[in-house]
Amino acid sequence: MTMKRRAFVLSAAVASGLPSFSAFATVADATQAIEKILRGKKASTGRVTLVIPPLVENGNLVTMKVSVVSPMTQADHVQAIHIVAEGNPLPNVVSFYLSPRAGRAAVTTRIRLGDSQRVRAIAQMSDGSVWQGEAATLVTLAACTEV
């Protein structure tokens, strides 16, 4: 009987007492991650546009674009953009930290998605306000679940 490397590492982590996690985060896990980002503030809807394909064949490579309406001046700019996916093993996918020198508040990247889910983009502004946008996607071949 041969054991795959990931299964061996996971069984070694469990045996050593390291905390384990389920294959997918729950909506409650994603909500908790968002609450940590917000730190008691309320996120307003708008100003943030998240573009993600509505149907994805392979969750291993999903192109995502986020833009935030902001003049990106010293007095008014985006400080951070956080991406939270409620169906991934860990809901915090990525965070981008920006300054006025970025010129515009827009990022493009590729992410892995563990299943069909809702993805949220949260933008923290220099004036202390928080804005969010979201998009849902249907993933036909899930990522993040190899054992």
List the helices and strands and how they pair.
Elements: H1 5-16, H2 27-38, E1 44-45, E2 48-51, E3 55-58, E4 62-68, E5 78-85, E6 92-97, E7 106-111, E8 117-125, E9 130-141
Parallel strand pairs: 1-9, 3-9
Antiparallel strand pairs: 2-4, 4-7, 5-6, 5-8, 8-9
Observed structural traits:
Immunoglobulin-like; 9 strands; three-stranded antiparallel beta sheet; 147 residues; alpha+beta
Structure write-up:
The protein is of the alpha+beta class and 147 residues long. The protein has a single domain (23-141), classed as SoxY domain (Immunoglobulin-like). The protein is built from two helices and nine strands. The protein has helices at residues 5-16, 27-38, and strands spanning 44-45, 48-51, 55-58, 62-68, 78-85, 92-97, 106-111, 117-125, 130-141. Strands 1, 3, 5, 6, 8 and 9 form a six-stranded mixed β-sheet that branches. A hairpin with a 6-residue loop joins strand 5 (78-85) and strand 6. The longest helix has 12 residues, at 5-16. The model has no long low-confidence stretch (mean pLDDT 87).
In short:
With 147 residues, the chain is α+β, with helices and mostly antiparallel strands. Helix content is 16%, strand content 39%. The mean pLDDT is 87.
